[in-house]
Task: structure prediction
Amino acid sequence: MDEAYQPFASRSYIDRIHRHHHVLLMRTLSKFGLAGVRLGYMMGPKALIAEIDKVRPPYNISVLNYECALFAIEHADVFAVQAAELREQRGHLLQALGQLPGAHPFKSEANMILLRVPDAAKTFAGLRERKVLVKNVSKMHPLLDNCLRLTVGTPEENAQLLAALKASL
Result:
């Protein structure tokens, strides 16, 4: 099971690795506050991990990534506070986005929100003109038609995003 966005989620499925002997749980430090590190980890039953270890290279992470992981573990409380703040901001942002005319935000358990707007290309251009960068995902799949992906930020960043959205819709 992929729990890359678990720090931002309201729950975890870690209990499943204890109840089911065929389940592996994967997470990343990327969403833990170290996006550039690109380091993940896997949890699961000892016997299953032993099978994975058979194909894992002996030096599969660099010394720098190793030190970053140690730093993250030593400062887990700081990252937990940051994730809690982001979850709170996500709630405020979802509520505010839901009040914008023509905008439809989708519930999220990640550090980003998918937002359907009447015209994604026009809204994306308007946001960019106002120095707010989001990802236009509307051409990635038909189900994402007129959708933008917004990253949840600080209260100030979210206020800037909302003001730019209001002006761009």
